[in-house]
Amino acid sequence: MTSKKDIVVFDGVCVLCNRFFNWLIKNDKDEKFMYTNFQSDFSKKNNLKLKDINSVAVIKTNGEKIYKVQAVYYILKKIDRYFIVQILLKLLPLFLTNICYDLIANFRYRIFGKYETCIIPNENVRKNFIN
């Protein structure tokens, strides 16, 4: 699967993930990304496994998939936000940052909550949203 824009994939029923998605939409002023969730037909057709749902993912224009902290770093770098966080993510060992990421991911529903169904994006977002 190739696209002219990188695709950010997130857990559509996770409250924390949806907050990150909403933040990203506001900060992606140049519309560098397309968006979808792991529950979408697109994700199923492109073989994004349910185990991947514990992670934000980016499908780059060349088809490469990146997950977890690497995906967060890539997103922040691409939209040119939170330079200090980018530096920290780059300097800290990946295994350590992924352990922290996994800890939050594994408890995200208990801490932040879970929607019963995926949130439907508003009109402005739909043009960059893939079902």
Write the layout of secondary structure elements.
Blueprint: E1 6-10, H1 15-27, E2 33-37, H2 41-45, E3 57-59, E4 65-67, H3 68-79, H4 83-91, H5 94-112, H6 123-126
Parallel strand pairs: 1-2
Antiparallel strand pairs: 1-3, 3-4
Helix pairs in contact: 3-4
* Stretches with pLDDT under 50, minimum 5 residues: none
Number of domains: 1
The helix fraction, in percent, is 40-55%
> Helical segment tally?
6
Question: Could you characterize what this model shows?
Answer:
This protein is an alpha+beta fold. It contains six helices and four strands, in the order βαβαββαααα. It has one domain. Helix content is 47%, strand content 12%. Strands 2-1-3-4 form a four-stranded mixed β-sheet, covered by helices on one side.
What's the gist of this structure?
The protein is of the alpha+beta class and 131 residues long. The chain has 6 helices and 4 strands.
Features:
single chain; alpha+beta; 47% helix; 131 residues; 4-stranded mixed sheet; 6 helices; 12% strand
